[in-house]
Hints:
Udp-n-acetylmuramoylalanyl-d-glutamate--2,6- Diaminopimelate Ligase, Chain: A, domain 1; 4-stranded parallel sheet; globular; 2 domains; 35% helix; 20% strand; 10 helices; single chain
Amino acid sequence: MIKTLQTVCNGLFDLDAAQGEIMVCGITCDSRKVKPGFVFAALAGEQVDGAKFAAKAAAAGAVAVVAAPDSDIDVPAHVVVLRHDQPRHALARMAAAFYASQPGCVVAVTGTNGKSSVVAFVRQMWQAMGLSGASLGTVGVTWAGGSEKLAHTTPDPVVLHDMLARLSARGISHLALEASSHGLEQNRLDGLSVCAGAFTNFSRDHLDYHETEDAYFAAKMRLFDDILEPGATAVVNMDSPQAEKVAGHAEKADL
């Protein structure tokens, strides 16, 4: 698969004519996976800053590097440096533009418990209706006649959109996926077209990462605040103590 940098950037950056015509054959945030023609996303992690590996990525053939405005990026002049105040968001949008294919109906499920069960139930209901359905989450990706393991409940956006494109190529028209708080917080679902979002429940969890319950809840609410587009469908478990708050987020987002 080969796309122009202009196509992959998807309106996120101002490129000159020559930069826009650069050919891109892959995207990654792992410098060890860079090949000639790749875009490398230099993301700041909890322990390591990807900017430290920009030069290594360039030496491996990267044609562009996505980085934060204040990142120290030392690459040759021919490598395009694309600066964005939200590099993870940019990576997700670029992955969506590069793979440019997903099942026509995607629903996302968030909540502390029950996500895996709900996406499996939804897949099974679709299949019972004669629809080509799949589910994606903690137990991996499952479709009629096949399955594949995943490293994370909500994969990084490159893995996610590669998988979505492959599911679409298999003829999968409907997908139910788990939207984890980590995945939402780290922008992994940005750029995904989601027609419906569901909330199961909320309880204390993952405070080693989110630190506070409010931050954890806010991460969950990104599904309704930022991912779903106006007019999409929101499904809320009204037995949850947080149901009214979640419904408020959905109403504010015109869902």
